[in-house]
Amino acid sequence: MDILLIAIGSHGDVHPFVGIGRALAARGHAVRLATNEHFAPMVLKAGLDFIQLGDEAIFREWIGDALVWHPHKGPARVLQGISESIETVYEMTTAEADRQTVIVGSSLALGGLIAAEKHGLRYASAHLGPICARSSVEMPTLPGGINFTRFPAWFKRGFWDGADRWFIDPHIAPAVNAVRAKVGLPPVSRVLGDYWHAPRLSLGLWPDWFSAKQPDHPPQLQVTGFPLYDEADHHVLDPDLDEWLDAGDAPIAFTPGSAMIHGHAFFDAAAKACERIDRRGLLLTRHIEQIPNHLPPTVRHFLYAPFSELLPRCSALVHHGGIGTTAQALRAGVPQLIMPMSHDQPDNAARVRRLGAGDSITRRFFWPGRVAKKLDRVIHDPAVLRACDVVAAKFDHDQSLLRTIELIEGLAN
């Protein structure tokens, strides 16, 4: 079977599609992954065919934009960037797929949805986090910790109607409908509500214990599980890091996300917090300009480490709340301290707190003293440690990945 995967975003957005692609290829399918040029080496090392969708300059421009991480302006900035990509994704999908191709596109691959509708292609939407599956029963947690789940149903429906009318659709619907009109399709609305769920299959790539399917979710939404992938198949643990891990107590790992290049304050507070509670610290980023010039002797910086190999040897993980990082920490059974910034991160942080597997702290108050205090609690609290063990025992990665693959294969029928 010919399968085209379309992934838009950072490492955390592309990793799951590489993992799914490898599993599909192992079952004998011909798999192509369309994504930004920046990820070509990773895709090729994983044994998949690569299709370029945007160049390195676009990726660098994207991650260099500080507005992307703003709690309120970030979503609008992302929608603006996606608007600029819709026609490119449409043209690529039209050129690379035919009626025998099964296409799986990430949430923001809206041009793929348009191409599938126009040309009658087999298409599945793939959503990485629960916030992509809108519900008026269980509401997501928004920046500032706002959650309307306990509000009346009429209020929650009105909230989504207002969000679509006044914020979401004005930023994305004109670009979607411009491409639709160009190819002879009628306009649509509620783009991030009903529309981005492909009519035949919409994959919720998280387990039901993390976020259950709600009564008002679209019937084609299938919740399967986290498609965990971290390049461990071709990215071995740095020997220097391996030796350092063995040389002392389990460290606290820190990462603000693979695409974050404005994390100097994060890493500075991280190093100082480790000093305050006399713990070893491990700072992870490919962007070394973020690392303070002078680190304490017990704090080290490394460019990258596969979480599946690293996290079981750590005492905690401090991170931004991206869904992929969150899932890896849950699987490893390590306490988490999350500093959410924007997008789905506040919601993911709230779900970790509800599971009892960690805590969160706002970016505004990510100070050494506060970070140290919260870390000291989550590392030593027996309730948090028990919750982490309980959650880790729920993982059956092979079975959830198989479920995802079988649903994709089902589109061929």
Structure characteristics:
seven-stranded parallel beta sheet; globular; 15 helices; alpha/beta; 44% helix; six-stranded parallel beta sheet; 413 residues; 14% strand
How would you explain this protein's 3D organization?
This protein has a seven-stranded parallel sheet, with helices on both faces. The protein is α/β, with parallel strands linked by helices and 413 residues long. Helix 2 (40-45) links the parallel strand 2 (30-35) and strand 3 (49-52). 44% of the residues lie in helices and 14% in strands. It starts with a strand and ends with a helix.
Largest sheet: 7 strands, parallel
Q: Specify the overall morphology.
A: globular
Please report the total strand number as a whole number.
13
Model regions low in confidence, pLDDT < 50 over at least 5 residues: none
Q: How many separate helices?
A: 15
Rg over CA atoms, rounded to whole Å, is 21 Å
Following the backbone from N to C, one meets helices and strands in this order, namely EHEHEHHEHEHHEEHEHEEHEHEHEHHH
Termini gap: 11 Å
* Percent strand: 5-15%
Name the strands of the widest sheet in spatial order.
3-2-1-4-5-6-7
Average pLDDT taken over every residue: 94
Question: Which structural class is indicated by helix and strand composition?
Answer: alpha/beta
Fraction of helical residues: 40-55%
